[in-house]
Amino acid sequence: MVELSVVGRKSPESTSTAEQVPFQPASMDIWDKKYRLTDKQGEPLDADMDGTWDRVARALAAVEQTDKAQAFWYGEFLWALRHGAIPAGRILSNAGAQEYKPETSAINCTVSGTIRDSMDDILKRLHEAGMTLKGGSGIGYEFSTLRPRGGYVSGAGAYTSGPLSFMDIYDSMCFTISSAGGRRGAQMGTFDVGHPDVLEFVRAKREDGRLRQFNLSLLITDEFIHAVCANAAWPLAFPLTQKEAQESDIDVHNPAQVHWRPWPLIEPYVHNHRGEVACRISKTIPARELWDAIMHSTYDFAEPGFVLVDRINEYNNNWFCENIRATNPCGEQPLPPFGACLLGSVNLTVFVVDPFTDQARFDWEQYRRVVHIFTRMLDNVVEINGLPLQEQRDEIFRKRRHGMGFLGLGSTLAMLRMRYGSPESVEFTEAVSRELALIGWQAALELAKEKGPAPIMDEEFTVTGAMLAQRPEMREEGFKEGDKVKGSVLHARYSRYMQRVAGVAPELMQELAEVGARFTHHSSIAPTGTISLSMANNASNGIEPTFAHHYFRNIIRAGKKTKERVDVWSYELLAYRHLVDAEAEAGGKLPDYFITTDDTAPRQHVDIQAAAQKWVDSSISKTVNV
Length: 626
Known about the structure:
The protein is of the alpha/beta class. The protein is 39% helix and 15% strand. The radius of gyration is 25 Å and the shape is globular. Residues 1-15 have low confidence and may be disordered.
């Protein structure tokens, strides 16, 4: 069993690794190249890594309203940054840097506005994406809103080359634009599993060099999963416009010709009172044939990924006002059109006391304090978001989304002498995720009382038939179509996630329904590759086990033309060498809790993710090695 009781202030003889294990050269090199602020001549402005923390703390504390508050929160923020709070890369790089790079953003995650099926809109969204990438943000898009290859374009008197050809244009744009700080542009392209060009999308990366600036994911519906399970036929179809319906002899009530399904756009298409769109069937294929093609591509190329789009919308905290069809590039943030979200991670290794010993334990009290302060810090990032588009700024101010997660889970488990994926590690993972959630939502209430809730919480929404169908308990509690309900009530009482939190904190959820939360979303677990390797001294990425305990990396030193080969150690092995055995080697005899991804079974990956996902209100970026 995992000891979950609160650990108080550490006694003098207790040993924490945070201040004892020196940073390795590879970590310092990446911090220097990625996050250290320099002037235009390349001269450092952050004296050292603590100088980076100081810059970020000052920039975020400056958001507070009074000099006294700014001074107080600067101290609190700096303490939290020195004790495990790690904002995402865009914040580390750009907060407090406006004098030197004024057109950069502190936001990692965005999603494009819906791309309508017209050349004007395709090129408009392309321009918006270019500006977003230039500022340093990643961006996701849905491309299945574009008509399939061979579709007739009446305005041009020609036939379209299809959505994949337009994705090529976005791919070239991303390759051409150098985003802020020399960061490679990041894009996600999503695509509906019922689109006539779905097989072309699935096989796109089999073409050498194609769509290399994209991660790709299919929008997988419940309907498709049911068709696969039933070994049924699967219609490939695209929406029928009002004009096309009038000019053709298609019978929209004939299921052999038309398939009705939800769609992100209603106009200019034929639609019904349930908001479904009439989609003209191009062809029908066995659902399992498509499933097999997806599985082969995923195994061979690790793409496309799966976005269980119906599940995402069912469990979205903003279920009552959003239709999510895309995610950020790594998938941990499903977002609506023009959606934006900032990120941050808590380094779990910092809270391990007496690692590798019989007394090894986790300092829950300090962890809760860091999460509490970090929540305010991330909320303050909204005020300095630096997003280039007005629609993006409107969206983030209205909902104030952020995604706090953690990194170093694999390293922390080793330091606590647990094997990744074991029952006790699963229990620990759920406990860490639950505490992050509960402390975060408590802070959401406190901040709302102090500064006001997110504006969406005070908005009134009209109850619709679709809402009552999604939440039948609302009808049971007396709501009917046409009623007006505050966003705070729909959020805190009827979000599936918040209902789960209410199971352990009912009074908190009741008060959030009355007052409104400061933000609509609080948690998300990102891959954290670069910040783990740099700011966390190569602690394991996000929720993952350690990739390798020892490898080599080539780095270029200032003033030298040749690369230098340097050792890179996992944080837990670095700590073990520093605290236990200076001669310990990755290939030598280490305790059996020193494992890597190669030692972890797929089921263990899933068990860990499931334990965390119960308490994460957005999504989790996770890799499963098979």
